[in-house]
């Protein structure tokens, strides 16, 4: 099954971002992708952290969710909707940062709320997701069936989750074929750790990793690292988009994963 990761440089304007996302989903589908994943906050990179609260949608209703459902149906793909802010009942000061997955028929098949909230302060740049978000609590893995009838186990995660290998161990019981990591890594943390961590998660779980990212200079002045990437089960980088908007594509290869797991049966050797 061909899989695609979309890289964007999202703006403070939701409608503009949705139009660009729809075009890139179509480009990936036209190239043969059956699964397409968007980056974290594909729908909005606001001027202020609180802007996400202004566009947060109720679960199951809103223009962002409508766009994702329609795009999945019209393109006939499994669509991983990067992330979008979803309202929390009774709260206006916090939201969830949520990944939604839609099937080729446009129906929603999964929801994952980001568990680990990012905080960073190097004296020049400061980020604290807990100021506007509440964390999720539950790992989510799903089974997707491709057009050939093969079923793949897919684990969901978001950005800062990448630093917590225990989440991926929980997702990989039973083992996953693919781990998804939509992200908006900061430039300094991405430059230092993004590829290193993606390859580590692929190697230790002997599966593929699909990591769509924000990649460039945003109107709010923030610069995201980009380097949208697809990594194989041996830790090899199969495709990468360094900066700017684009789409990268590779194929899920069950035979290659089986070969890696047979040659080095590390998953069978786990003790803890």
* Derived structural class: alpha/beta
**CATH homologous superfamily identity:** Carbon-nitrogen hydrolase
Tell me the number of structural domains: 1
In this structure, how is the largest beta sheet organized?
7 strands, mixed
* Helix and strand sequence: EHEHHEEEEEEEEHEHEEEEH
Unreliable residue stretches: none
CATH fold-level assignment: Nitrilase/N-carbamoyl-D-aminoacid amidohydrolase
Indicate the radius of gyration in whole angstroms. 17 Å
The best one-word shape is globular
Tally the beta strands.
15
Instruction: Please give the CATH class.
Output: Alpha Beta
Helix content: 25-40%
What is the distance, rounded to the nearest whole angstrom, between the alpha carbons of the first and last residues? 33 Å
3D structure, described in words:
By secondary structure, this protein is α/β, with parallel strands linked by helices. The chain has a single domain, classed as Carbon-nitrogen hydrolase (Nitrilase/N-carbamoyl-D-aminoacid amidohydrolase, 4-Layer Sandwich), CATH 3.60.110. Helices cover 26% and strands 25% of the residues. The protein is built from 6 helices and 15 strands. The strands form 3 sheets. Strands 1, 2, 3, 4, 5, 6 and 15 form a 7-stranded mixed beta sheet that branches. Strands 9-10-11-12-13-14 form a 6-stranded mixed beta sheet, with helices on one face. Strands 7-8 form a two-stranded antiparallel ribbon. It starts with a strand and ends in a 9-residue tail after the last helix. The mean pLDDT is 97.
């Amino acid at each position: 099954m061909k899989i695609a990761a979309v890289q964007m440089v999202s703006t403070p304007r939701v409608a503009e971002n949705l139009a660009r996302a729809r075009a890139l989903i179509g480009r990936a589908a036209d190239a043969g992708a059956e699964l397409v994943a968007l980056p974290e906050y594909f729908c909005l990179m606001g001027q202020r952290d609180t802007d996400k609260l202004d566009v947060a949608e109720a679960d199951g209703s809103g223009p962002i969710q409508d766009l994702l459902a329609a795009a999945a149906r019209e393109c006939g793909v499994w669509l991983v909707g990067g992330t979008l802010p979803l309202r929390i009942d009774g709260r206006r000061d916090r939201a969830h940062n949520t990944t939604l997955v839609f099937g080729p028929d446009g129906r929603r098949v999964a929801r994952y709320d980001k568990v680990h909230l990012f905080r960073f302060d190097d004296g020049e740049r400061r980020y604290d997701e807990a100021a506007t978000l509440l964390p999720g609590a539950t790992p989510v893995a799903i089974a997707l069936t491709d057009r050939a009838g093969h079923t793949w186990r897919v684990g969901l995660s978001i950005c800062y989750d990448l630093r917590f290998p225990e989440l991926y161990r929980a997702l990989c019981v039973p083992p996953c074929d693919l781990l998804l990591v939509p992200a908006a890594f900061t430039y300094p943390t991405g430059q230092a750790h993004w590829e290193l961590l993606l390859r580590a998660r692929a190697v230790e779980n002997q599966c593929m990793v699909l990591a769509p990212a924000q990649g460039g200079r945003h109107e709010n002045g923030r610069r995201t690292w980009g380097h949208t990437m697809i990594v194989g089960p041996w830790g090899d980088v199969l495709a990468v988009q360094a900066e700017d908007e684009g789409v990268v594509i590779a194929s899920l290869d069950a035979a290659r994963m089986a070969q890696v797991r047979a040659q080095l049966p590390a998953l069978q050797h786990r003790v803890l």
